[in-house]
Design brief:
The complex is a heterotrimer. Chain A is of the alpha+beta class. Chain A has seven helices and six strands, in the order αβααββαββαβαα. In chain A, the strands form two sheets. Chain A has a three-stranded mixed β-sheet with strand order 4-1-6. In chain A, α6 packs across α7. The radius of gyration of chain A is 31 Å and the shape is elongated. Chain A starts with 5 loop residues before the first helix and ends in a 10-residue tail after the last helix. The model of chain A has no long low-confidence stretch (mean pLDDT about 90). By secondary structure, chain B is mainly alpha-helical. In chain B, α2 packs antiparallel against α3 and α3 runs antiparallel to α4. The longest helix of chain B is centred in the first third of the chain and has 26 residues. Chain B is globular. The termini of chain B are far apart. By secondary structure, chain C is mainly α. Chain C has two domains: about 90 residues, no CATH class; about 290 residues, no CATH class. Chain C is built from 15 helices and two strands. A two-stranded antiparallel ribbon of chain C has the order 1-2. In chain C, a hairpin with a 3-residue loop joins β1 and β2. In chain C, α8 runs parallel beside α14 and α14 packs antiparallel against α15. The longest helix of chain C is centred in the first third of the chain and has 38 residues. Chain C is globular, with a radius of gyration of 23 Å. The relative contact order of chain C is 0.11. Classes of the chains: A alpha+beta, B mainly alpha, C mainly alpha. Chains A and C meet through α1 of A and α3, α13 and α15 of C.
């Protein structure tokens, strides 16, 4: 039936169906109403780096040993590290200051790729805006340290892989230590079983 | 005298204002018409002319001739004013925005003299005509219906002639507009 | 209980409430002319207040309805303190924004005319609200030639559009104003002829008489509104389309299309002047919806006899809101018309159709309003519609492309 005006009536029907359907069918309106509904990000999405610590205490369980490879490799040079020194003034394997300027960071993930100790990883938090342009956009060590449990929650696959590797390493080390301890024990036992070599008296 | 004036004003304002319902728009009409003649800026002059049309419509309505008043507004303000404006815009784009008075020298004096003579003559004819002596007929209860019946009855020849004239004008306008598209 | 009954009675007939109030004031000894002025001021204040409220509601409901038809939410954030209220306080936020925006007037623009244009636009929009019957005995000004008043005053809008376009001293504003005026003038003829059809059958130019002529129920339950007759349906559609064009609404909103002329005659207006234009356009839209309801949809009459319990003004505003909803619906559906298509549509389709509807109505009346008359009027309206419609759509049909290559 193609009388003049039928096109308009068909169009009106489509619009009316859209209008009525938007109240009853939930999947018609695809708007995600931020900030009530947050978007579901894929696992590999990244925003800015953060430091991982194992266990409960951030300072004690920190994986970073202040090797400064990430500082050297960072293209916009947004990482600033100063190694910690102990009471005697000797350098120890932890950073005293670890700053990342997230207004400079370009999220290239090179620091993550070069870290030998799996201690710096990419976070997913994007709600970092502040009114203070210079102060609040430099994240220091306390703001960067987040637990391994948090890392497991945001990047489950990567975290599982890293944890498995650490677990394997730990087991190998334990096995090596156990073997070494067993060998040392055997040597000690052998030493105890053998009579002591006494020097010949006045021969 | 001022006390009497105020007393009549406050006692029965509607009747007192009755004359002013006609006189005020009439004054606006004269002022706007004068401004339309004197103004240099053509568009301002056209807008003052439109204001005078509106004022004339209000005068008609205040005098009790509703139909003529509304038709005046509909035709003059809605159509004729637009034609005037379009004509100005389409034929004379430059020199439009100069402001100030359009005349200098003896022009205004001569014009005013001619206008005064015309006004006196017109008033003379109005006041000495036999129509001024007859009492006004009572306003009709349904003036629009009576006008309609008169148009379709006594004046039907005039109505048909006007219809033919308007059709000719419409056809002419269409022909003029079409000639550009050859 | 007595108070409750009185309240219900006043709800049914607010004019009785007004008369009671004026009588109460009169018993205090106020002279008659002061009472008349107070009564007029109350009526004017109520009408303007209601329509400004409708304008505010319409501006947000239009956005929400358009949004829902386009599979998205509309404005749903602005509320009152902590209650969201589905974004219904958006007009308040918009109003505050409009008032606090800077009022830019170009230095070379005609300052006086630029200032006066919104005023001259608003005055006719508000004046035409005086003759619309909002309910039983609820006309602010019961003029004998009310329909004529409506169109006479509505012609003032064109002057305002020209003033706005010219005063901006902007080539594109003038162009937009010319197009807007050409559109308004072209669509005024089908508008007036459609209104005349209703006035002709009712035998009067007074809106209350036209509404009264649509009263009563045929066979006890079928309303006798003009839209339910063939000529009335055609005339209603003509009036509706012409009304869309007169208020510059989509699909006839080329004069204010953003992608075409950057708001046309309104380009150089910002802040409160723009809000005034916006308000005048919406109030004009409501006024013309009100006139459509009065002329064709039975005004304040209820559709079924037992539904007269609901007050007459409720029916009127319900119908007006329904017509306004259809205007938003049409806006969500149809693309914008080009100016030459728009004018061709007015002169070559709507004008002949309006004459056809006119003749059909006259034949319906003189053939005795019986079944034969209905068939005759249907034929007189239907056949030109099909013929003209087919011819029109064929004219603009896309033909097979032919290419000419240079040799």
């Amino acid at each position: 039936m193609n009388f003049p005006g039928s096109g308009i009536i068909k169009g009106l029907a489509v619009t009316a169906r859209n209008f009525a359907g938007s109240y009853f069918e939930k999947d018609r309106l695809t708007t995600e109403q931020y900030p009530e509904e947050r978007p579901k990000l894929p696992e590999n999405s990244r925003s800015f780096p953060f430091l991982i610590y194992d266990g409960e205490d951030p300072e004690a369980g920190m994986r970073c040993v202040s090797c400064k490879i990430c500082e050297k490799e960072c293209p916009p040079q947004c990482i600033y590290i100063i190694q910690d020194r102990d009471a005697a003034g000797k350098a120890i394997k932890r950073p005293k200051i670890f700053d990342i300027d997230i207004s400079v960071c370009m999220s290239c993930q090179i620091c993550v790729e070069v870290c030998p100790f799996e201690s710096i990883r990419m976070d997913q938090d994007y709600e970092l805006s502040s009114f203070d342009r210079f102060g609040s956009l430099i994240l220091d060590k306390s703001k960067l340290l987040k637990s391994n449990a948090y890392y497991q929650s945001i990047h489950p696959t990567e975290a599982a892989e890293t944890d498995a590797r650490f677990e394997a390493d730990r087991k190998k080390k334990e096995a090596a230590a156990a073997a070494k301890a067993a060998a040392a024990e055997k040597a000690a036992a052998e030493k105890a079983a053998k009579p002591p070599i006494t020097p010949e008296a006045g021969a | 005298m001022i006390c009497d004036f105020l007393k009549t004003c406050c006692a029965d304002p509607v009747n007192f204002l009755g004359d002013w319902f006609v006189l005020l728009p009439a004054m606006v009409l004269l002022l706007a018409g004068g401004a339309a003649v004197v103004m240099r800026n053509l568009i301002h002059a056209a807008l003052c002319l439109t204001l005078s049309f509106i004022a004339l419509g209000i005068v008609f309505i205040a005098l009790g001739a509703e139909f003529v008043g509304f038709v005046q507004l509909l035709v003059y303000v809605g159509a004729v004013a637009m034609v005037i404006v379009f004509a100005i815009l389409l034929t004379k784009p430059d020199q439009l925005t100069k402001s100030g008075s359009a005349f200098s020298g003896l022009g205004p004096a001569g014009g005013a003299a001619v206008g005064l003579v015309a006004l006196v003559a017109l008033l003379g004819f109005i006041f000495t005509s036999p129509l001024a002596k007859k009492p006004l007929p009572a306003p009709a209860s349904a003036p629009v219906a009576e006008i309609g019946q008169a148009l379709m009855g006594d004046y039907k020849v005039a109505l048909i002639a006007i219809g033919v004239l308007l059709t000719a004008a419409l056809v002419g306008a269409a022909v003029l507009a079409m000639e550009d598209k050859s | 209980m007595n108070i409750f009954l009185e309240l219900v009675h006043f709800l049914q007939a607010p004019n009785e409430l007004l008369r009671w109030f004026i009588d109460l004031l009169g018993s205090f000894g106020l002279p008659q002319w002061i009472l008349a002025i107070i009564s007029a001021l109350i009526i004017i204040g109520t009408v303007i207040g209601v329509f400004l409220g409708l304008f505010a509601l319409m501006s947000v409901m239009e956005r929400k309805i358009l949004a829902r038809a386009q599979n998205r939410y509309g404005p749903n954030r602005v509320g009152f303190f902590c209650w969201r209220l589905c974004g219904l306080f958006q007009p308040v936020a918009d109003g505050i924004k409009m008032i606090t925006k800077e009022d830019l007037v170009p230095r070379t623009a005609d300052q006086v005319v630029h200032l006066l244009a919104p005023v001259v636009m608003m005055i006719p929009a508000l004046m035409v609200l005086a003759i619309i019957p909002y309910g039983r005995d609820m006309v602010p000004a019961d003029l004998n030639a009310g329909i004529l008043f409506f169109f006479a005053v509505g012609a003032g809008t064109e002057v305002a559009v020209f003033m706005a376009g010219w005063a901006s001293n902007n080539k594109y504003s003038v162009l937009g104003a010319m197009r807007a005026i050409a559109q308004m003038i072209s669509y005024e003829i089908p508008l007036v002829i459609a209104a005349i059809i209703a006035a002709m059958i009712s035998g009067s130019l007074s809106p209350s008489a036209i509404v009264a002529a649509q009263g009563g129920f045929a066979w006890g339950f079928v309303p006798q509104w003009f839209v339910l007759t063939p000529w009335g349906f055609a005339a209603c559609l003509l009036f509706y389309i012409a009304a869309l064009a007169e208020s510059n609404r989509s699909p006839f909103d080329l004069p204010e299309g953003e992608s075409e002329l950057v708001a046309g005659h309104l380009t150089e207006y910002s802040g409160f002047k723009y809000a005034t234009f916006f308000m005048a356009e919406y109030i004009g839209m409501f006024a013309v919806c009100g006139m459509l309801v009065t002329l064709f949809l039975g005004g304040w009459q209820a559709p079924l006899p037992f539904l007269t319990i609901i007050p007459s003004w409720c029916w009127f505003f319900g119908k007006v809101c329904f017509v306004a909803f259809t205007m938003v619906w049409v806006r969500a559906t149809l693309p914008r018309l080009r100016i030459d298509h728009m004018l061709a549509f007015a002169w070559k389709f709507l004008l002949p159709m309006s004459f056809a509807a006119f003749i059909s109505a006259a034949c319906w009346h003189y053939a005795g309003r019986g079944p034969l008359a209905w068939l005759l009027s249907l034929a007189i309206v239907g056949i030109p519609y099909l013929v003209l419609g087919t011819a029109f759509s064929n004219r603009f049909a896309v033909s097979r492309r032919t290419y000419q290559f240079s040799e």
